[in-house]
Design brief:
With 371 residues, this protein is mostly helical. It has one domain. 72% of the residues lie in helices and 2% in strands. The chain has 13 helices and two strands. Strand 1 and strand 2 form a beta hairpin.
Length: 371
Amino acid sequence: MKTNKTSLNIIFSLLIFFLVSVLSIYATRVFLNDAFKNLYLKQIAFYLVGTSFVAFLTYKGFFLLKKYHFLVYIGINILLLFLLIFGVSINGSKCWLFIGPISFQPSEFMKISLIITLARTVEKYRNKKKYDLKQEFIILLKLFLLTLIPSVLTFLEPDTGVVIIYFLIFLVFVFFLKLNKRWYIFFSLSFLVLILSFLGLYFFKQDLFLNLVGEDIFYRLDRILNWASSSGYQLENSLIAIGASGLTGFGYLQNPVYFPEPQTDFIFATYAANFGFLGCLFLIFVIIIFDTTILKMLKKKIKLVDKYIILGIFIMLFYGQVQNISMTLGLLPITGIPLPFISYGGTSLLSYMVSIGLILNIHANFLKYRN
C-alpha cells in the first residue's frame, strides 16, 4: 500500500489512541480490584489482534465483506436473537455472547455490517438513472427494515446507545439520498408523532407504556433526568475529577476521585484526572485530525458505495466521540457509549479497527487507480 498524508494521519492517530488508552486503563488500577488490574494487558492484546484485522481488510478482506455482506448481516442478527433467548443476563443486560473463555458483543459488529449492507442497498438504487415516488418508497422501506430488525433485537438486550447509532447511520444515509422533499417532511412529522405518543403513554397510560417497553425504561429515563439536573454519583464525581485536575492533572496514578466504570464509559474523566486540561486539548486535537482525514476522503473520486461506507463509519466514530466526552462533562445523557479506540473493551475496539481496515482499503484502491 502506498503511503501518503491520509494513511499517515490515520496511523499516527491510532498510535496516539493506543498510548492514551493503555495509560488511562492502567491508571484505573488504583480503584479496581485485583481481578481487573490486568485490563491494560488485555487492551494491548486487543490492539494487536485489531492490527491484524486492519492488515487483512486493507489488502484483501474488504472484498469478501462486500461480496457476502448480507450473509454477515443475517448471521449477526441470528446471534442477537440467540442472545435474547439463551444469553446470560449481566447487570440486567443480555449483551454478551460467551464461547468458552471468549466473550463478545454482536451489536458492536452489527454497526459495521449495517453500514456495508445499507451502502450496498443504496448503491443499487443510485445506479438507476430515473426513479419515481414508488421506487423511492421501496428503497426507504428496505433501508428502514434493514435498520429496524437489529435495532429491535439490540433494544431488547437492552443497549439503547447502539440503537441510536443504528438510526443515526440510517438517517444520514437517507439525507444524502436526495429524495423528494415530501419524504423528509414525512419523516419529520412521523418523528414528532412518535415523541408525542411516547410522552402521552408515559404520562397518561403507564400500564400500557410498561407493557410495550418494559420496566427497565425507568432506569434509562433516570439516567437522562440525572443528566438534566447534573446529579448522580457517577456524573458528579466525574465533573469533580475533571474540574479539579487543573492544567496538567493530579499527576499520573494520583487521581483522588473515584467514579464507577473509569475504564470504559468514563475513560475520558480518568484521562483528564491524570493529564489535565493540556492533555485533553492534545487528545481532542488528535481526534480532530483523525476525523477530518476520514471526512476529506469523501471528496476523492471513489466509488459511490465506498463513499457511503466512509460516511457511515465517520458518523459512528464521531457520534461515539461526542457522546462519550460530552456525557462525562454533563453535556449529554449517560448512554454507555465507549470512547472509540480509548475505552476498554475488546469487541468495540475490534469493530473500530475493522472500520479502519475498510477505510485504508478504500484509500489504497484510490491510490492504485489514480496512479
